[in-house]
Specification:
disordered N terminus, mainly alpha, 11 helices
Length: 292
């Protein structure tokens, strides 16, 4: 079973959990593209949103077996303990992971709807469940990737659920609610097509870093955003902090459960450093049309 974040203290002991950043980016991209396509009849002059490579639905995810096993265990526990809040949100969590590994949109939608149902059931009993709102937003994102039209509406619902999680427990998942809001505002196109905002993205990404400064993901997000915004000085400053943090993080986030995170973090760190060595004019210009 996947372990909890450092801010959800139902169980004793040091937390360890799977990393979710790349999957969230894929969700945001799918939502934005779908929303953009649906909006073309109303807004003919909108710029195309930034393209992010999204892993195809081929069932070849490196950790698929691990995620499927966690999903089956969480499902069995939730079905046996439907009134258990922890069982509900952990099933929502497992649905998010497993939905990212399946080989068809139909299967992804089915799994996402199971997670959505579990989280909505939890929230109906406990409106102040931060994990309930958090994983509801994540599973809504998985559902949105299966939709050609209507995804833009789901993006706004995701935004609302992450905002609710922020107000209840901003430290959940190492600053996860703010981190995902920052990613959402960063990746989404700006007004009038969607909710994208450079100012909001920066504010939430910085807040996530303030809440969990020792979590490498939060610095990586800011580095990548600064590079997207052609802020090379900011990216260099944050990379220096990440390099100083790296040895400590290696001793803190250990074990098989952190293998997906480290594989991703190592790759992104190398890519960011390569990009920083490019001339400033070669950096990608800000993709977000909204500079508010």
């Amino acid at each position: 079973m996947l372990a909890t974040s450092n801010s959800w203290r139902i169980r004793a002991g040091k937390p360890a959990r799977f990393h979710r950043k790349l999957k969230v980016l894929a969700i945001i991209q799918c939502c934005c593209v779908a929303g953009w396509l649906g909006a073309l009849t109303d807004f003919n002059a909108l710029a195309q949103p930034r393209k992010i490579q999204v892993r195809p639905l081929d069932g070849s995810h490196e950790f698929a077996a691990q995620y499927e096993k966690a999903y089956q265990a969480a499902k069995a526990r939730f079905e046996a303990q439907t009134n258990n809040p922890e069982a509900a949100w952990q099933f929502g969590q497992a649905c998010f992971d497993w939905a990212d590994c399946v080989s068809s949109n139909a299967q992804r939608e089915e799994i996402a709807l199971q997670g959505i149902h579990a989280c909505r059931t939890l929230i109906a009993r406990d409106p102040y469940s931060a994990p309930g709102h958090y994983y509801l937003a994540m599973d809504l994102g998985q559902l949105a990737t299966t939709k050609e039209l209507g995804a833009l509406k789901i993006v706004r619902e995701m935004e609302a659920e992450f905002k609710t999680a922020v107000t209840i427990d901003p430290k959940f998942d190492f600053g996860g609610p703010d981190r995902n809001l920052g990613l959402l505002y960063h990746q989404a196109p700006g007004w009038p097509m969607s909710i994208g905002s450079k100012a909001k993205a920066r504010a939430h990404l910085q807040k996530a870093l303030k809440l969990a400064p020792d979590y490498p993901e939060n610095l990586l997000n800011l580095i990548e955003a600064d590079l997207d915004w052609s802020d090379k000085n900011g990216a260099l400053r944050e990379m220096k902090l990440l390099d100083e943090l790296w040895p400590k993080a290696r001793t803190e986030f250990t074990g098989d459960k952190w293998a997906p995170s480290w594989g991703d973090w190592e790759t992104r760190r190398v890519q960011a450093k390569k990009k920083m060595n490019q001339p400033s004019h070669a950096l990608e210009p800000p993709h977000n049309a909204s500079g508010d």
